[in-house]
Amino acid sequence: MAQRLGPLELIGDRWVIGDPARKEGLSIVLTPEGLEQHRRGETGPLLAVEWSRFLELRVRAAYVRWHATPFGGFVGSFAPGADMGRDGCSLQGIVRRPYDLWSARYTHHEGRYPAGHVIVLKALFDQLTEAKALDRLGDPDWLGTAVAKLSPHRSWYAPKGNRLVEETIRSLGT
């Protein structure tokens, strides 16, 4: 089984977004109950949000580490919609009770994320949001099977990645 899809990685028996071992070590752990943001060296989560609170959840993933720096943000200002700057590595969404915008950052891994991985990871979050099935991200077996099917995708062509995610979700059930 593949253990990585862009910033999403299996560490032990938990799926984690971001690199918990680097510098500041911000990471987001996907649990059966919801999301937990962790910082390296701290015992408990910085924040925790249950899956049922999310109305929408999107992932932003800078392809290379420098894209998530202030300089990357400056460069990104000339490319609207690019995942660059402070929030280039983050999850963003809308939560209920109370209704509010939500976001949490994570630390970029040492290497670059393959474009195909970023494309299908974004599509996975988008399509699970549309299906109102974000809690699937907290099911380690379901997510492991999905990552194994999606990780061979290397194309920059987004429509192909979107179709692959759609087929994968349909085959695994939501």
Query: Which strand order do you get reading across the main beta sheet?
Result: 1-2-3-4-5-6
Helix content, binned percent: 25-40%
| Main beta-sheet annotation | 6 strands, antiparallel
Average pLDDT number: 86
Question: What shape does the CA trace take?
Answer: globular
Sheet/helix structural class: alpha+beta
Number of helices: 4
Distance between the termini: 20 Å
- List low-confidence stretches: none
The H/E string reads EEEEEEEHEEHHH
**In the residues, how many domains can be counted?**
1
Structural key phrases:
174 residues, 4 helices, globular, 3-stranded antiparallel sheet, alpha+beta
Molecular structure report:
The chain is α+β, with helices and mostly antiparallel strands. The protein has one domain (4-172). Helices cover 28% and strands 26% of the residues. The protein contains four helices and nine strands. It has helices at 70-76, 115-130, 140-150, 158-172; strands spanning 4-5, 8-11, 14-17, 26-30, 34-39, 47-50, 54-61, 89-95, 100-105. The strands form two sheets. A six-stranded antiparallel beta sheet has the order 1-2-3-4-5-6. The protein has a three-stranded antiparallel beta sheet with strand order 7-8-9. A hairpin with an 8-residue loop joins strand 3 (14-17) and strand 4 (26-30). The longest helix is centred in the C-terminal third of the chain and has 16 residues, at 115-130. It is globular. The mean pLDDT is 86.
